[in-house]
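Try this one yourself first.
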């Protein structure tokens, strides 16, 4: 399987549940990439809707709940970032994938890869550092896949 995004040590937040959820998102983007390369556009589309859009929403909610529970100071800004992403995906990316060409699908996938990489490596990493410094251990289970 070819990888459009590779898991890296930089992505680790140190919180097991969130690392597992992030790994699942990374793996899904790679699966979509491979389906597209095989010309299986419909399957790629289904995977994107079911596993990226739905799962990301669950993952974001999970992060926000944990941040809220422990009074993470940057929660509101982080929440806003999640909201903008979901809105962009639903309003811009999905219609483009639905009606557009393979090229449009690929550019939507690049956007997802870029956003996820940046988000995990920056703001998600930041909460990882904060929880670590506070000595707070989160022993949640990763959110389930439908
Ligand atoms: Fe995250
Ligand atoms: Fe996040």
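Now uncover the answer:
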């Amino acid at each position: 399987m070819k990888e459009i995004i590779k898991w890296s040590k930089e992505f680790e937040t140190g919180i097991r549940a969130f690392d597992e959820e992030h790994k699942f998102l990374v793996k899904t983007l790679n699966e979509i990439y491979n389906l597209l390369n095989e010309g299986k556009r419909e399957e790629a589309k289904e995977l994107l809707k079911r596993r990226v859009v739905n799962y990301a929403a669950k993952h974001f909610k999970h992060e926000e709940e944990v941040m809220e529970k422990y009074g993470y100071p940057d929660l509101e800004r982080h929440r806003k970032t999640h909201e903008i992403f979901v809105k962009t995906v639903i309003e811009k990316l999905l219609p483009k994938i639905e009606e557009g060409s393979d090229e449009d699908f690929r550019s939507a996938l690049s956007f997802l890869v870029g956003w996820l990489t940046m988000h995990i490596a920056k703001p998600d990493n930041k909460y990882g550092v904060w929880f670590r410094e506070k000595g707070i251990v989160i022993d949640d289970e990763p959110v389930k896949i439908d």
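Discussion: DSSP finds four helices and no strands in the chain. Residues 59 and 143 are 7 Å apart (CA to CA).
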